[in-house]
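Q: Could you fold this chain for me?
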Amino acid sequence: MEHKFEKMINFLMNDKRVEYENPDTFLPRFIKSSDIVADIGCGPGFYCIRLAKLASKVYCVDKNEIMLIYARKKLHK
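A: Sure. Below is the predicted structure, expressed as structure tokens.
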């Protein structure tokens, strides 16, 4: 049985989104290795994953526990 958030997670983590938003190009222009960043409304971690590679600390915040669990799993891979 598909979890009710699975479609939303697939939409938010889609490779087409990477092509469209191109975060790996624009984030390094604004985030330094000494920065502490908060991703408010992080969802499944689309930006958290990338921010964690750039900043010294990232806070991922979302009101939906399912999204936070997914983001945490992706961050620890």
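A (continued): The chain has a mean pLDDT of 92.
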